[in-house]
Amino acid sequence: MDGEECLWLVGLVVVFAVTLSILRKRGEEMRREAWRELAGRTGLTFESRPGKLFRKGSMSVAGTYRGRHLKLDTHQVQEPPSGEYDQGVTYTFTRTTISVNAPPEAELSLSAKFILGGGELVGDKQFDRQFVIKSQPKGLAAKVFASPELRQHAFQTRSTKFKLAHRELIWSKSDVEPDVEYLHSVFDLLCDVAEAVERAVQDTGD
Predict the structure, then answer these.
(1) Burial class of residue 88 in the structure, from the number of CB atoms within 10 Å of its CB (0-12 exposed, 13-18 middle, 19+ buried)
(2) Residue among 109, 192, 185, 188 nearest 147 (CA)
(3) Which of 57, 80, 145, 148 could form a disulfide with 122 if both were Cys (CB 3.0 to 4.6 A apart)?
(4) Measured between alpha carbons, how far is 102 from 163 in angstroms, rounded to an integer?
(5) Domain range holding 185?
(6) How far is 104 from 137, CA to CA, in rounded Å?
(7) Helical H runs in 43-133?
């Protein structure tokens, strides 16, 4: 490879790197604008912090929604290196957290079912086939999802996965979610579930 070919190769690498950087920044700006629109639509507050050097920036949407403290943000999970030359992998998740007025020991989780069996049944065959549900105390899940409307809402909200622990209902999804309509639907689903949990806990205590 002569000098001219080396220059061409270096030039292509530089152009490729610059193009990737521009696309990444445009993607970040689109997601930022989407979350800003979501905040305006729901009466919440949008905050954004720029990244530094090789660290990504952060953004959040927070405030009171339907009478509950709600926060939408991102968090990262670092997968440890598997070998000497492995740097590990960092995964980014979109996360929504809302407050629930329930005993701290109350627990509930729902996720998509990939294999048969496992979890509690709520008595709806289609719902039981679709989701794995666990709760503490036992039977809480059946009471929470007794409403056909709530079960249908969970069906309609794609990538539904959440858990209740320590009086917080937490939903998460891989990558940074930019779909305003979808995130708004997630907010309403979590609020509906929180209300159902509070009713179920109250009925259990009566």
Answers:
(1) exposed
(2) 192
(3) 145
(4) 13
(5) 3-205
(6) 11
(7) 125-130
Residue with tokens 């289609």: 126
Q: What tokens does 156 get? A: 């309609």
Residue among 180, 99, 197 at smallest CA distance from 146: 197
Q: How far apart are CA 70 and CA 58, in angstroms?
A: 17
Number of domains in the chain: 1
pTM of the predicted model, to two decimals?
Answer: 0.80
Alpha-carbon distance of 150 to 76, in angstroms, equals 30
The pLDDT tens digits of the residues spanning 2-53 come to 556 666 666 666 665 555 555 455 657 888 899 999 999 999 999 987 665 4
Amino acid at 201: V
User: How would you classify residue 166: left for phi > 0, otherwise alpha for psi between -120 and 50, otherwise beta?
Assistant: left
